[in-house]
Structure formats: structure tokens, C-alpha cells
Amino acid sequence: MQQAVTRIQQRLAQAAVAAGRDPQQIRLIGVSKTHPASLVAQALEAGLHDFGENRVQEAEGKIQELASVRSQLTWHLIGHLQRNKAKRAVQLFDYIHSVDSIELAQSISRHTQDLGIAQRNILLQCNISGELSKEGIDARGWDTSRDVRTALVAMVQAVAQLPGLTICGLMTIAPYSDDAEQVRPVFASLRMLRDLLAEACPHHPFNELSMGMSGDVDVAIAEGATMVRVGRALFGERPALGSTV
């Protein structure tokens, strides 16, 4: 595990330097979904502190198993979140990357208030490519259509007014491609959209861009990623369905 973590950290640092960026600006999130808590513990020992999970129920078990080192861990929800699980997500995760509607944001806000949590860090998931298989706020054509852009800004400004939420930035899942250069326009578009929304919502930081995975992190970093989500290159292939909780 130590070799895997070091290898990825070096890759990220090299990509940052090549892009003229400070490697300290890049946060490596180990995608631990389907992998046991024991592997998370090994990664923590190797110096990794940020972990991403897709499912609230699966993450809850791991977080409980690792309760003794909770202060050393930052948990990120990177998978789709249903509103009926928003309350538990607010309790479990430090960052929720997958806020994709005003209704979900309202649920998170309400639960944050009810639970007495001062603020919950969220990212708005945007579907830049328009793929039907991808979750996220429909942001296709935001840069060419004034109507799309106006509606998107209004929606995000409504989220920005909800109590108990800090909009840290945007997240996207790029289309799969064997050629990472093919997804560069998606990453560049998300960065430009982030800049637009940051100007429209000045009371929120909007300093995070969660984009890039094992196959395209170098391009994502070149286009401004501050959070990259890496699973396979750290933990290996996912266990076969049904072999783990």
C-alpha cells in the first residue's frame, strides 16, 4: 500500500509541476468503495487521509469500524445521494460531492440545521457532457446558451442562500475514454463554470474542483483539479460483486 500511495502522490506532484501549479493544491481522495475498512487503515498508515465512498450504508460500516481514528480521516461522499439518506450523509461525511438538485440541497440544509451542525461542505455535481448515464445538474451548453447559463446561475444562487451549507466548488464525472485528451474540454468547461458561479455567489468559497480519476488525473490537474478521485491505482481492482460488504 505504501508503494501505491507514494507512486500516485508522485504522479500528482509531477502533473502539478508540469502545469505550473503547487502540488500542495491537489488533494488525493482514495476511492475506497467496495473495499474493506482494513485497506483504508493501511492507506491511512501510508499517509492518505481522504477517502471517497459511493453508498451511505456501506460507508457507515467502515466509518464505525474506524471510529478510533476518525479525527485523522476526511470522508467524502462521491456517489449519488437520495434525499431519504441525506440526514445520515450529513452525519457521516465531511464533504458531499454529489449535490445535484435544489431539492437535495434543501434536504441537506434542513438536516444540518436540525442536527445542530454549523456548516456542511458540499460540492455541486454538474453533468457537463450531457451523457444520460451521468448524474448531476444538467450543465450541457452552459457556455453557448444564455438561457441555460441564466437558469443554472439562478439555481446555484438559490442553493447559496440555504442555511448551513458551504459550497466549496464543483464536481464532475468525465466520459470514459482511452485517450485522456478527449475529456480535457469537459474539465476545462467545469473550471470556467466554477469561475462564473464563484463570481455570482461571492459569499461561498468555490475553490474546489473535484474531477479526474485514475486514467485522466494528469489532464484534470492541468485544467485546475484540486481534488482527484483515485481507486484502482491505489486499491487494485474492486472485489467481485457479493464478495464484500
Structure, described:
It is built from nine helices and nine strands. By secondary structure, the protein is an alpha/beta fold. Helix 5 links the parallel strand 4 and strand 5 (120-127). Helix 4 (86-92) packs across helix 5.
Which characteristics define this entry?
9-stranded parallel β-sheet; alpha/beta; 245 residues
Gist of the model:
This protein is α/β, with parallel strands linked by helices and 245 residues long.
What is the element layout, followed by pairings?
Layout: H1 2-18, E1 27-31, H2 37-45, E2 50-53, H3 56-65, E3 74-77, H4 86-92, E4 95-99, H5 102-114, E5 120-127, E6 137-138, H6 146-160, E7 165-171, H7 184-200, E8 208-210, H8 217-222, E9 227-230, H9 232-235
Parallel strand pairs: 1-2, 1-9, 2-3, 3-4, 4-5, 5-6, 5-7, 7-8
Helix pairs in contact: 4-5
Helix content: 40-55%
Helices and strands, in N-to-C order? HEHEHEHEHEEHEHEHEH
Provide the low-confidence segments as ranges: 241-245
Spatial shape: globular
Classification by helices and strands? alpha/beta
How much beta, percentage-wise? Answer: 15-25%
Query: Taking all residues together, what is the mean pLDDT?
Result: 94
Counting DSSP H or I runs of 4 or more residues, the number of helices is: 9
Count every beta strand, where a strand is a DSSP E run of 2 or more residues: 9
Characterize the main sheet.
9 strands, parallel
Task: Evaluate the radius of gyration.
Answer: 17 Å
